[in-house]
From TrEMBL:
GO molecular function: arginine decarboxylase activity
Domain (Orn/DAP/Arg decarboxylase 2 N-terminal): residue spans on this chain: 120-375
Protein name: Arginine decarboxylase
Keywords: Decarboxylase, Lyase, Magnesium, Pyridoxal phosphate, Spermidine biosynthesis
Cofactor(s) required, per the database record: pyridoxal 5'-phosphate; Mg(2+)
Active site: 534 (proton donor)
EC number: 4.1.1.19
Record field: catalytic activity: L-arginine + H(+) = agmatine + CO2
An annotated GO BP: putrescine biosynthetic process
Family under the similarity heading: Belongs to the Orn/Lys/Arg decarboxylase class-II family. SpeA subfamily.
Organism from which the protein derives: Erythranthe guttata
Residues bearing PTM N6-(pyridoxal phosphate)lysine: 130
Pathway connected to this protein: Amine and polyamine biosynthesis; agmatine biosynthesis; agmatine from L-arginine: step 1/1
Length: 659
């Protein structure tokens, strides 16, 4: 229950923001913290729409892409000239240019750290496929990264197959790092990759995997390149760090590493051990923790060199974080306190200083940054279709607290009011309410009390529906009169949170969600979002900045659609969300378009590989129903009564699951 003073503050704030001073795009940018989480890719333009800056800081003014125009083009009714594509919402809009810019920024951060610290080797990263396995995402990364030998990381057999085929068109030096649990088939496949001249490293996650590698490589006649994943003592204590530390799930302990070295030496294969790998978890909160981990790993690397392994690569794993809430704090789940450059500099500094002090040649530095590469390039756009204000969202005040706060005459008034309410004497109620008018808090509480008592009477059967409605209307009027901010509204959005934002539902991960247009207008509503699934968990009531509601604009008459649509965007969801939600179940997957910057008449072009979202038929099929049989049944029924079979057929095939 919120303290009453908080209600008064909120009322004052609402009154202040109501002033007629013009609302500018800069005000929206501040309210939604766009600069904090969005720079250099997203800004609010002078039309009050979100602009995408496809080349980051290097984007020229005429290259900026107005996101609303993209959405209109993709979702407008299909036209024969292809100007509008007729795709349903929700819609994932991908920007390969942004992906390219992220990859290049990561590379250049390492390049510049290496140059400024006079490091004697180079950086050569890999992209962990699990982060977003989409064909275009993986192929684009291989293409954009081939100039600097960027490779892929796979953690399962299907990922390895996907990585192998994608890397056939990449740089021959690009690394193919095989992590994850390995059985005979996985190891065989990795060795086949080596035979195909892919630069494959089999990383041992468990000691037993070495026996498989030794045996299968003999059988296939391939000399393997082996890496070892170290279980570091350095622990990342944040949400994603449970796999790190001595008790972590993955990697080899010090004694296991020693046994691996001994066994490789016994088999005259010590020259095969080339890479040391570690991964302390996602969203590493600070560069201090990172430096600790890299220091420890670099010492292990140097020890392996001393023991005679032909080491050449140190792989610092993933964990390069994203600032989801724009706060630049080390609250690792939603924010991190460093930049790409800080991260790269810290890695290079640690590896260099440990190797220098041990007199060991500088290794190639590899990282497996996933989230940091793919998060920005994809935006989920959805639509608010209606809103409602339900009394359960209005401020709750218990009667005890309430009576305690009342003084003297106000208390007498309140008691009279209550008595009148109990007698169904609404005229007297309103008279007493009038006397309380100057006292906003009391009046507000009175309205709540009145409602509560009426509900009790309704349940007993002594009050009719018309009277209940009249009381609700009176109370609402009172809220308005005293300028209390309206109760929180629920905006219904055409989205399945389980499919599109699984990490919000599963691990409370927050993503920036904002309207992508109307940003020249002051948003007056406080809202939570509710999706179109009938599940009570299908709502978003936590937002970046510790907020439990989001400021939104009024929908036009007849809901968002009647007013030309009210579009919201969820940003930074390019990593994990699609993989978790989209591939696990094909349930109501959103439509997808890819958009590139173009110097044509419009600043963008929609690529011709758009994928429509799931139809009702698709969704039924995923649950083992057979839409064709169902259609036949309904057709037979329809022939019996009225001829509407064509409408029926299109509801299975054309009608989108959402939207
Ligand atoms: C998940 C994972 C990554 C990617 O982590 P990010 O935090 O997305 O950079 C890298 N390496 C391994 C071994 C992983 O399991």
């Amino acid at each position: 229950m919120p303290p009453l003073t908080c209600c008064v503050d909120a009322a004052a704030a609402a009154a202040a923001s109501d002033s007629t001073a013009a609302w500018s795009p800069a005000d929206s940018s501040r309210l939604y913290r766009v600069e904090g989480w969005g720079a250099p890719y997203f800004t609010v333009n002078s039309n009050g729409n979100i602009s995408v800056r496809p080349h980051g800081a290097q984007t020229l003014a005429h290259q900026e892409i107005d996101l609303l125009k993209v959405v209109k083009k993709a979702s407008g009714p299909e036209t024969s000239d292809g100007l509008e594509l007729g795709l349903g919402l929700p819609l994932v809009v991908r920007f390969p240019d942004v992906l390219k810019n992220r990859l290049e920024s990561l590379q250049s951060s390492f390049d510049s750290a290496i140059e400024s610290q006079k490091y004697n080797s180079h950086y050569q990263g890999v992209y962990p496929v699990k982060c977003n396995q989409d064909k275009f995402v993986v192929e684009d990364i291989v293409k954009f990264g081939s100039g600097f030998k960027f490779g892929l990381e796979a953690g399962s057999k299907p990922e390895l197959l996907l990585a192998m085929s994608s890397l056939c068109s990449g740089s021959p030096d690009a690394l193919l790092v095989c992590n994850g649990f390995k059985d005979v088939e996985f190891v065989s496949l990795a060795l086949v990759a080596k035979k195909l001249h892919l630069n494959t490293v089999i990383v041992l996650e468990q000691e037993e995997e070495l026996d498989i590698v030794i045996e299968v490589s003999k059988k296939l006649g391939v000399r393997p390149v082996i890496g070892a994943r170290a279980k570091l003592r350095t622990k990342h204590s944040g949400h994603f760090g449970s796999t790190s530390g001595e008790k972590g799930k993955f990697g080899l302990t010090t004694s296991q590493l020693l046994r691996v070295v001994k066994k490789l030496r016994d088999y005259e294969m010590l020259d095969c051990l080339r890479m040391l790998h570690f991964h302390i978890g996602s969203q590493i909160p600070s560069t201090n923790l990172l430096a600790d981990a890299v220091d420890e790993a670099a010492q292990i690397y140097c020890e392996l060199v001393r023991l005679g392994a032909h080491m050449g690569v140190i792989d610092v794993g993933g964990g390069l974080g994203i600032d989801y809430d724009g706060s630049k704090s080390s609250d690792s789940k939603n924010s991190v306190a460093y930049t790409l450059q800080d991260y790269a500099s810290a890695v290079v500094r640690s590896v260099r200083s440990v190797c220098d002090s041990r007199g060991v040649k500088h290794p190639i530095i590899c990282s497996e940054s996933g989230r940091a590469i793919v998060s920005h390039h994809s935006i989920l756009v959805f639509e608010a279709v209606s809103n409602s204000t339900s009394s359960c969202n209005s401020p709750e005040i218990s009667s005890l607290d309430f009576e305690e706060q009342l003084k003297d005459d106000a208390l007498a008034n309140y008691r009279n009011l209550s008595a009148a309410a109990a007698k169904n004497d609404y005229e007297s109620c309103l008279n007493y309410a009038e006397q309380l008018k100057e006292r906003r808090v009391e009046q507000l509480n009175y309205a709540e009390q009145l409602k509560e008592r009426c509900v009790k009477q309704f349940k007993k059967g002594s009050l009719g529906m018309e009277e209940m409605a009249a009381v609700d209307a009176r109370c609402e009027l009172m809220f308005k009169e005293i300028g209390f901010p309206e109760p929180v509204s629920t905006y219904h959005v055409n989205l399945s949170i389980f499919t599109s934002i699984p990490d919000f539902w599963g691990i409370d991960q927050l993503f920036p969600i904002i309207p992508i247009h109307r940003l020249t207008e002051s948003p007056k509503k406080e809202a939570i979002l509710s999706d179109l699934t009938c599940d009570s968990d299908g709502k978003i009531d936590k937002f970046i900045g510790g907020k439990s509601s989001l400021r939104l604009h009024e929908l036009g008459e007849g809901g968002g659609k009647g007013n030309g649509g009210y579009y919201l965007g969820m940003f930074l969801g390019g990593a994990y969300e699609e993989a978790l939600g989209g591939v696990h179940n094909l349930f109501g997957r959103p439509s997808v378009v890819r958009v590139s910057q173009s110097d044509g008449p419009q600043s963008f072009a929609v690529m011709d590989d758009a994928v429509p979202g799931a139809s009702c038929g698709d969704v039924l099929r995923a649950m083992n129903h057979n839409p064709e049989v169902m259609l036949k049944t309904l057709k037979a029924r329809s022939d019996e009564f009225v001829g509407i079979s064509s409408e029926l057929a299109s509801s299975f095939n054309k009608m989108p699951y959402l939207g």
